[in-house]
Each structure stands twice: as C-alpha cells, then as structure tokens.
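To the wet lab folks,

You asked to see what we're planning to order before we commit. Fair enough. Below is the target structure as tokens, and below that is the sequence we designed to fit it. If anything looks off to you, flag it before the synthesis order goes out.
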C-alpha cells in the first residue's frame, strides 16, 4: 500500500463549485491550514478570517476553527460557530482539547497541530463529502427530527437540544428498534472510541434526551446498550 494519502475526487459545494472553506483563526496555524486546503490538489476555496471578525459562517460549506495557544477554550469557539451554522466544523489545535467538551459543543472532527497535511486534507474531504448528501427529516409519530433546520419537534413543540444531543437522537431515530452498545454510538456520533472517550458520555446524553423528550423513546437494552423505540405515541 502507498505510504501517502491519495486525495479524494474534488468535492462539490452547495453552489456547484469547489467548496467554500472558512478558516477562523489567527497566529501561525491558520495560514498553514489555508496552504494545505487551498494549495495544489486542495479540497476547496479557502477564506481565512480572524475570530470575531464578523465572517458569515453561514455561507461556508465547512468551517475550520483554529485554536492557537493564546486563544480561548476550543469548546467556546466551536459553540459560537455552531450557533450560526449546521455545516461541518473541524477543530485544529496545538494541544489535544477536551474532546468531550469540543464534540458536545458541535465539532465534527479534531486535528492536531503541527499539521499533517495528508491527515487534515483527508479529514476535511470526508466531512465535506458526508455533509453534501441530503438528509430528509425523519418522523416517528409526533416526533420529528429535521436535520436541514437542526430542529426537533414533539407534538408540534420545539425541543431545545445541544449539537450532540441532536446528532445522537437523529442517528438512533434513523435506526429504529436497533440496539447499539455505547462503543458503537461513540463511533457513529462522536467519531471517537472508548480508547479516547469514556462510554459514560453516551449514557449522560441519553439521560438528557430522556428528560427532554419524556419516557419511552430511548429504551435501555440490558447487557447491550440503547434502542430507539419507534412506536407511534399519538393519542388514539
């Protein structure tokens, strides 16, 4: 097998052209990210803007949040971006951030600095490819999960969820009646594993969803993990 990464076929952005990648960050790392992603054979057209500079993150197909040594906490930066867009967010940080906090704030992936160009290109290309696939809303009785608007409604009322609560619910609702162990859910929703992240992360998010949705939607399968209950709970 070759030792180097072979770039994927060019990804098409929402406009039909090369994807627009917004890099938010200053210091020494952001220019390096731009050179990797927008250089020869790069995965998109890259715009670099300082944090808090009023950049329109909603126009980007993917946002890279660069966290320098003297920048605020990575989770805070991700949460601010996630509040404005549902597009993929990749964090680049010189030290390993708190993965629980970063992913819970809405990050889709994390890459370490100093940057490995092949790794960063691969991670961004995968996120762009996955996000370009349209996802229809999924409905089970009075529960509707709408990924286009990142909105969940129950009996017509919006249910406020964090980014990872939403992603966990969407994943399980798309696989009704199927039991998943916590390791499988970590891999599917957090893109992580029990080697990196404690399995109780999943348990805590399931408990939060139960408090917000009410009993009966997420069922414990003893000795296995959790299952989404697809019953139509509308009153007869």
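Sequence we intend to order:
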């Amino acid at each position: 097998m070759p030792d180097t990464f072979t770039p994927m076929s060019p990804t098409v952005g929402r406009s039909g052209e090369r994807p627009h990648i917004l890099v938010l960050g200053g210091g020494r790392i952001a220019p390096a990210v731009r050179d990797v992603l927008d250089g020869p054979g790069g995965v998109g057209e890259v715009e670099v803007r300082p944090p808090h500079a009023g950049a329109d993150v909603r126009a980007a197909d993917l946002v890279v949040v660069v966290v320098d040594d003297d920048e605020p906490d990575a989770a805070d930066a991700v949460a601010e971006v996630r509040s404005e867009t549902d597009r993929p967010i990749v964090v680049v940080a010189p030290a390993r951030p708190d993965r629980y906090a970063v992913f819970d704030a809405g990050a889709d992936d994390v890459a370490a600095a100093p940057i490995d160009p092949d790794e960063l290109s691969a991670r961004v290309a995968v996120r762009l490819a996955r996000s370009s696939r349209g996802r229809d809303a999924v409905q089970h009785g009075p529960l509707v999960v709408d990924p286009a608007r990142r909105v969940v409604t129950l009996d017509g009322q919006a249910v406020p969820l964090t980014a990872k609560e939403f992603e966990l619910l969407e994943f399980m609702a798309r696989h009704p009646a199927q039991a998943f162990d916590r390791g499988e859910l970590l891999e599917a929703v957090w893109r992580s594993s029990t080697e990196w992240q404690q399995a109780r992360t999943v348990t805590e998010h399931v408990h939060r969803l139960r408090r917000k949705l009410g009993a009966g939607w997420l069922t414990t399968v003893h000795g296995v993990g959790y299952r989404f209950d697809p019953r139509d709970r509308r009153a007869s």
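Structural context that might help your review: Residues 138-228 form a domain with the Arc Repressor Mutant, subunit A fold (CATH 1.10.10.10). Helices lie at 29-38, 74-82, 99-105, 117-131, 163-173, 182-190, 200-213.

Thanks,
Computational group
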